[in-house]
Design brief:
- The complex is a heterodimer of chains A (173) and B (192).
- In chain A, helix 6 crosses helix 8.
- Helices cover 69% and strands 0% of the residues of chain A.
- Chain A starts with a helix and ends in a 14-residue tail after the last helix.
- Chain A has two domains: 90 residues, Orthogonal Bundle (Rna Polymerase Sigma Factor, Chain: A); 61 residues, Orthogonal Bundle (Arc Repressor Mutant, subunit A), CATH 1.10.10.
- Chain A is built from eight helices and no strands.
- Chain A is mainly α.
- By secondary structure, chain B is an alpha+beta fold.
- Chain B has five helices and seven strands, in the order αααβαββββββα.
- In chain B, strands 1, 2, 3, 4, 5, 6 and 7 form a seven-stranded mixed β-sheet that branches.
- In chain B, strand 5 and strand 6 form a beta hairpin.
- The longest helix of chain B has 23 residues.
- Chain B is rod-shaped, with a radius of gyration of 31 Å.
- Chain B starts with a helix and ends with a helix.
- The relative contact order of chain B is 0.16.
- The chains are: A mainly alpha (173), B alpha+beta (192).
- Chains A and B meet through helix 1, helix 2, helix 6 and helix 8 of A and helix 1 and helix 2 of B.
């Protein structure tokens, strides 16, 4: 494939990738960081376009996940950059929270292990199958399937009306 | 609660649900910026390419021929040759041994023993081509005229130079310069 054809291919799929990654980031970080990580993610996708699989969204989420983790690590530097971006290129608008805030769900997700909550987000928000989640997280399909199943069960328990007090696993007598 | 119910409830809490699509021009700009950024290996290649362009540019500067204004003095006793290094006019091509062999009628290696005003005196250590000479005098028109020599660009006392000349005029354009200028001695070895 020549260079132009590769550019064409990338340019044709990029809008879908950008939209998906933007949402992925909007769900997980502040707008300024999201902007920064989005362009970084896209850049990595562009550099690795030769190894981009046919199913590119889980692959792109996986890259975004790493870029976001990097950004979170460099939090102090990030804060300075975010301040600069806010001055030079203010984010278009802040994202509204969900219309009727589901406090119970938010509390339940926070109560879960971060890994489990992330699995559920990838499943419900990014609309990924266990196999795709496995690509994002870099784990086996089997592991992703089992972990997702367990995470769902835990969330169910946390949300169950009777389970407010003492239904979490491990706290049971 | 079924899987579907759970998913529906989670989706209702999706913070990106109300995220408006990116403005087309913003998307275009992002895409353009991304695709105009070269990846690391290419960046290195580009740097090397840029270095070559710079070198080529410098080469063009060196490769301009000097105007022959003074004739080589007859050297009956092979003692002293007079040459000039004057202003440059046209652009030159990359120096090759063939061109050097064909165009030069006198070539030597020598060390500058003295500079008196515009006249540079060189003690010849080796004659590659032409009549044997022990000493060569080069007349430089002014400081600016000689900066087309390889190396520092001017004759400096104590330094060794490789100098080629045709009809009494120094060949610049990469054909004359400091003896340790990159590739110059090899060029002389190849030509003569």
């Amino acid at each position: 494939m020549n260079v132009d054809a590769r550019r064409e291919r990338f340019a044709s799929i990029a809008p879908v990738v950008i939209d998906a990654v933007r949402r992925y980031l909007a769900r997980r970080t502040d707008p300024a960081t999201a902007d920064d990580v989005l362009s970084e993610t896209l850049l990595v996708c562009w550099r690795r376009r030769d190894v981009m699989p046919a199913e590119h969204l889980p692959w792109a989420y996986g890259i975004a996940r790493h870029c976001l983790a990097n950004a979170e690590r460099g939090r102090r530097r990030q804060a300075r950059l975010a301040a600069r971006i806010a001055v030079l290129d203010p984010p278009p608008q802040a994202i509204d929270g969900p219309a009727p805030a589901d406090d119970e769900l938010a509390v339940a997700l926070r109560a879960m292990r971060a890994e489990d909550a992330e699995l559920l987000r990838l499943w419900a928000w990014e609309d990924l199958s266990p196999a795709q989640i496995a690509v994002v997280l870099g784990v086996s399909v089997n592991a992703a399937t089992i972990r997702l199943h367990r995470a769902k069960q835990r969330l169910r328990k946390l949300l169950a009306p009777a389970g407010h007090e003492d239904s979490t696993e491990g706290s049971r007598p | 609660m079924t899987d579907d119910d759970l998913r529906t409830r989670l989706r209702a809490a999706d913070p990106a649900a109300s995220l408006p699509p990116m403005a087309p021009q913003q998307l275009d700009r992002l895409l353009e910026e991304t695709m105009s950024t070269t990846s690391f290996p290419w960046r290195r290649v580009a740097l090397i390419a840029a270095a070559f362009v710079l070198l080529a540019g410098a080469g063009l500067l060196f490769l301009r021929p000097a105007t022959p204004t003074t004739e080589v003095l007859p050297v009956p006793s092979a003692v002293t040759v007079d040459l000039t290094a004057t202003g440059a006019r046209a652009k030159c091509v990359e120096p090759t041994a063939e061109v050097l062999r064909d165009s030069a009628d006198f070539a030597f290696a020598g060390t500058v023993t003295g500079i008196d005003g515009t006249v540079v005196t060189l003690q010849v250590s080796k004659v590659y081509l032409g009549a044997t000479a022990a000493q060569v005098r080069v007349t430089q028109e002014d400081g600016g005229a000689s900066d087309t020599m390889l190396g520092s660009g001017t004759f400096e006392t104590g330094k060794e130079y490789l100098v080629a000349a045709a009809q009494g005029s120094i060949l610049i354009c990469g054909y004359s310069g400091e003896a340790d200028a990159v590739g110059l001695r090899a060029l002389y070895e190849a030509a003569f």
